[in-house]
Each structure stands twice: as structure tokens, then as C-alpha cells.
Amino acid sequence: MTGTALLALIALGTVGGAHLLSKARWTWTMPRAGIALWQALGLAWGVATIGALLGYALLPYGQGITGGIPAALADGAARMEVHHLAALLSGVGLTVVLLAVLVYALVRMERARRRHRALLELVAGQNAAVPGTLVLDHPAAAAYCVPGVRSSKVVVSAGTLELLDADELAAVLAHERAHARERHDLVLLPFASLRHAFPQIRLVDRCLDAVELLIEMAADDRARRHRSPRELATALLRFAAARPVAAPSGALSVAGDQPAVLARVDRLLRPTPPHRGIRAATLIAIPLLAVVPFLLYHLPV
């Protein structure tokens, strides 16, 4: 039962880790590493939870998961009792649910983007002041990107052109292009699908909020390679004061809720370098979380 017990401990540990990480602020000093840690944590939770259920179900065969599955198929699960079969069905069911909500979220996102791209062809146009960017004839502030495999669209409103000066606008566009270039929408997808699978669990919402904030900070970091941090910070404050229009479904916007915007502005104006020890521990934890649960599938009883 060693492999099964370890998988169960990892599954419980990842839940506790997600609770702590959702409240952490040190990830703000290295958002890309923080995002990777969240991804590894989510993967470890899914693999470990499913593995613990399958491992318990296959205990009568004493060969772990990878050895127990062929043995169970060979004898038609004859050695399994009711509680083993219940664990087997739970493990298979959880796998199906997680994959189904992931596919559903992906399909829904692509449909929303396809509809919005079609709408943009009708209501948005080019403007010489912002080449390569679509401009909506709308007085409210709006700036977002619609990511895509072959082409991504960066969209701003006429209200944004009036709200920001040229430098601030350039910083906002650099932020949106960072979202599109790094495909932050795909980073968010598994966490958004978890919220569809477990809508009543508050921790899932906190995890999604934490990852969304780190993604915005990562885009801020990429934008400030080319623009002054103060330009982007000022643009964020102007957006927050103007109460921008929410981005459409499937898009990523430069502006978020006010606490998140203030945290980003403070970070831009008063950057804090990551602690070397924490950074090293994070970079070690990421591959361990991603790999160890899979290795335990091969561990016999």
C-alpha cells in the first residue's frame, strides 16, 4: 500500500499547498515561476488523487497501478470487493470528469472567440495611431486581446485612445501583446475548467484568481522590457478610475478589479527582487510535483 498511501498524501498535500499558495505574495516577485508552480500543483493533485483511488482499488493484486490494471483486466476484476470497485469507479469517473470539463471549456472558449472575431470584422477598424490594432468606436475604456493559434487580435476602444497618452497606450498594447505571445489563455484554461467541475468549492475560485493575477503580472513584466514601468502603472490607474468595460469571454484584458490593479501598480513602481532561496526551492519543487506522482504509479505494494 506504499504507493497508494504516498499518492493519497500528495493529493492532500496539494490541497493544503493550494490553500497556502493562494494567499502567498512572494510569487509576485517571480510570476512566471509562480505560474509554473500552480500548474505543477494542479497536475500533481489530479494525478495523485486519481492514482490514490486506482491504487486502493487494485490493492488485491499487489502490483501497484501499472501492474494491477492488466491483472484486473485479465481476471475480470474477480479479486475486487465492493469497496475496491467503488474506488475504481471513482477514479475512472474523476478522470472522465476532468477531461470532459477541460474539453468543454476549450470548445466554449473557441466558440466565444469565433463569434467575437466575426463581430470585430463588423464593428472594428484600423487606426493609423495604433497600427496592427483593431479600434472599436466606443466611448468607454477597453483594451484586450483575443488570442488565437494563427492570429491574435489586440483591441482598444476609441475611449481608450482619448483616455491615454501615446506612451501609456504603447505600454498597454505591449501588455496585451504579451498575453497573446505567451498564450496566457491556455495557462488559465485548466483552472477555469476546474471551476466548472467544482463550482461550489471556494478554494478553486481562489486558485483561479491567484493564477489570473500572476498572469497579469507576467504580462506587465514583459511589457516593461520595452516601456517604462511608470507608463504602464499610470495607464492602469487611469483604466481603474475610468471603470473599463469588461473583456468579452475568451479574451484577456489589461484591467482587472481594483485590488489587483493596485497590487500591480505597487509592484511596477516598487519592484522587489525574488529571494534566491525561495526561487531555488520553487524551481526544485516544480519538476518534483510534476513527475513524482507519475513515478508512484509504478511502485508495487
UniProtKB/TrEMBL annotation:
The residues that cross the membrane are 6-24, 36-59, 85-107, 277-299
Q: Which InterPro entries match?
A: Beta-lactam_resp_regulator, Peptidase_M48
Keyword hit for Membrane:
yes
This protein's source sits in the domain of life called Bacteria
Needed cofactors, names only, are:
Zn(2+)
**CDD domains recorded for this chain?**
M56_BlaR1_MecR1_like
Q: How is the cofactor bound?
A: Binds 1 zinc ion per subunit.
What keywords appear on the UniProt entry?
Answer: Hydrolase, Membrane, Metal-binding, Metalloprotease, Protease, Transmembrane, Transmembrane helix, Zinc
- In what residue span(s) does the Peptidase M48 domain sit? 111-193
What are the BP-aspect GO terms? proteolysis
* GO MF term (any one): metal ion binding
Entry annotated with the keyword Zinc: yes
Q: Which family does it belong to?
A: Belongs to the peptidase M48 family.
- Protein name, UniProt field: Peptidase M48 Ste24p
